[in-house]
Amino acid sequence: MRDSVRVRFAPSPTGYLHIGGARTALFNWLFARHNKGVFVLRIEDTDRTRSTEEYIEAILDGMTWLGLDWDEGPFRQTERMDVYRRYIERLLDEGKAYYCYCSPEELEERRRAALKEGRPPKYDGRCRDLDSPPADRPPAVRFRMPRTGQTIVEDLIRGPVVYENEQLDDFIILRSDGSPTYNFVVVVDDVDMGITHVIRGDDHLNNTPKQIHIYRSLGFPVPEFAHLPMILGPDKTRLSKRHGATSVQAYRDMGYLPEALLNYLVRLGWSCGDQEVFTKEELIEKFSLEAIGKSAAVFNPDKLLWLNSQYIKDSPADYISELLVPFLQREGLVGEGEDIDREWLRRAVATLQERSRTLLEMARSMRYYMLEYVELDPRAKEKFVNEKTKPLLEDVRRGLAGVEDFSAGEIEKVFMSVVERHNTKLGKVAQPVRVAITGNTVSPGIFEVLEIVGKERVLKRLDRAIEGI
RNA sequence: GGUCCCAUCGUCUAGUGGUCCAGGACGCCGGCCUCUCACGUCGGUAACACGGGUUCGACUCCCGUUGGGACCGCCA
Hints:
The chain is mainly alpha-helical. It has 20 helices and twelve strands. Strands 1-2-3 form a three-stranded parallel β-sheet. The protein has a three-stranded antiparallel β-sheet with strand order 4-5-8. The chain is elongated and about 105 Å long.
């Protein structure tokens, strides 16, 4: 029986929850759920100048929307300052850390010079063994890194990664203002929270040897590490705002379903044979770190769009209807607090499910279902609603007016008799009616469209179209 | 500049030494279905970065080259 798995997602609230962060959260969540472990949420807000409450809210909100529920937290680092200081004291007492009196400006200066001369911009260790400290400035605290030997990161995805200790430098663990830095804090938190597996972005791989030394110097066991490949933009650089919409809420607002986004994200780096579409339960069951690839992946909006369309098509109409309401409101088709006939909406949605790729698209298609009248597209009108088709429209109007039970089945009968009387084809009748009713040449099947629009409005729109010829 | 990581169709990927003249998915192109558009369905396009080894045999193992990425902060 292995120890129970504990993982965490630890975003810094300096922005919205973005695609990359969401995928990291997802992998952690899946790993926890698959192993019946614990998923901890921790907010890395030690950067007080850039962290905001608004972003914290946005991140929690995004997680909730995606259905990535956490078992513990959210913990905040700013609430744990005394814990960090205690450990720093200990390191100082044991000689595993030391005060550094170099000013940020001096450091920056030296770094620039080193870079310019092509030397590694590494701290030179000049305060490492200081015996007479200058008393005139507040010191920072640096970690005393071993100068020989090597450190091996046993990564679950990449295998062993070897670092020469001489490449590592004495990094700052406590700023001169008394606040601890990331590479230190992350270790203390992960230890305190009993994290067994650190699953995070590839960009942290090079920080890992430093952190391993912190674990060791504090006498704590080193957790397992799994570094996820990055998500890239089309130009193969790290995905960022430059590449357009990258926040989770942006996708929500564009009408993507959370399960579609999750499904897309999980396939960026993880695979399970040839399977593309997974339910959440399947993901939990099938997920494993071993099946994660090593190479970075380019974000492909087209495939996400396709997946979204699959989910819209295959979800129950009730569910889609529910999600659609906010979009209808935003499109001005439903007033705030206005009641809509749920059963009618469900039927309308059902006709649009296989031809909408996003909820926003669907909401826009709902115009001709919900408005009293629609504008006819000029080109469509010219081609289909004209002198030539007028007799057809009039005949359809006449037939429809006499229909008691205004159902798709009865409507079809009217169309068929019109087709027969004029010795023509259904298409010749359907298109003019489609344009008259929807304003355009594209819609679901004409019989069901008419049924949903309803007899009264159908007749009114036909009248108006005929008058407009 | 240093260190580290990565490398199969345009993109996401399957492949774990022979079953691969490389499979699936998105996209794109064409057929079918059809009242339009979609959906669906059938078919097509398109890849093992390069060079050395190892081996009877390499997409698969090793080395190098090239290309890409990440990190080198008193940011996280």
